[in-house]
Amino acid sequence: MNISKNDRVSLKKLELQDAKLIFDWRNDETIVQMSSSQKKVSWEEHQQWIKNSINNPTRSVYIVNYNDQPVGQVRFDKDDEKDDFVYFSAYLLSRDTNKGIGSEALRLSCRKYFQENSIVQKAYSYIRVENEISKRFVMKGGFAPTTDKVIAEHETFKLMRSTVIDILNREKAAQKNIDFYSDLIKKHDLDVKSLNWGSKQSQEMRFELFSQLDNLNKKSILDIGCGLGDFYDWLEKNNLKTNYKGIDITPKMIEKAKERFPNANFEVKNVLERNENQKYDYVVASGIFYLVEQKPFEFMKKMIQKMFEMAEKGIAFNSLSSWADQKHENEFYANPSEVVDFCRTLSRKVVLKHHYHPADFTIYLYK
């Protein structure tokens, strides 16, 4: 079970009063097996380590709290204060793994550390060769395998400052979109204007194209950027009985969608920030690319790739087109040829539809 929007992951700087807690954790059988040293420590050794950690300018240790309860630790170590790199390590109690807590703690701690230490340009993490769980954990947080630094019986992973900055920029852009659509909902409630669509007709025209992806009856569908649940409504009205799930980053959208369709499955989620482990026959996204300001084509490619990973059969998405005769400022118009070229790196089974609207195109991408 993953953490919900009501759960809270936070960090607390290590203090002397945490000594007994950390001592018990450091000697936990599971944590010892996953550690680099694979050794337990004595109380005397641990007390000295605590004092050194608190007073050491090259080390930062944080307790990970989940709903105000301590569940693990993250740590950053430097060989020298002047180094432009740091070593990252972390662990959680076994009872609190597989909930998304670790990923959130990694995100929070790396963001905090890089913001507070401007000299640091990269973080390394050494993980034992057999520890597949920890490898997946750090890679979800943006670390990538590297041969920059090598130690015996370990694999090395690296996180660049630029990656952390990109994540921060995406979060800021996402919040800007959330604020934008939240304001529209206040003004227009359930009207299509809350989604910034030109008309109900143009919205449903795009839904019709999505329905031509395949016979969607009895298929599982993930609708990314589902808004008020209008695609679910369209499917129901057209007697297409699907196993539907809608997700959106705007809480107000999901709140309204749940009010409209209490029997449907809606959730607040950003799939680029939090994993959606479930697979779906088809993954679709309508109108999610046009407001992206920070590296819009890079965002588009990441989203297409993520959608394709979650799909068993294929995906469909639309975008404003750079082939349009007229364009509006502050909106992203993708080049259909470039999008098709990228899609072909994922699958040769690509369909481009550019006939239905003067400024819009839809792509189908099949497994």
UniProtKB/TrEMBL annotation:
SUPFAM superfamilies hit by this protein:
Acyl-CoA N-acyltransferases (Nat), S-adenosyl-L-methionine-dependent methyltransferases
InterPro entries from the UniProt entry = Acyl_CoA_acyltransferase (IPR016181), GNAT_dom (IPR000182), Methyltranfer_dom (IPR025714), SAM-dependent_MTases_sf (IPR029063)
The record's section on CDD domains has: AdoMet_MTases
UniProt domain N-acetyltransferase: residue ranges: 9-165
Tell me which Gene Ontology terms the entry assigns under biological process. methylation
Q: Which UniProt keywords apply?
A: Methyltransferase, Transferase
Domain of life from the UniProt record = Bacteria
Annotated Gene Ontology MF terms?
acyltransferase activity, transferring groups other than amino-acyl groups; methyltransferase activity
Q: What is this protein called?
A: Methyltransferase family protein
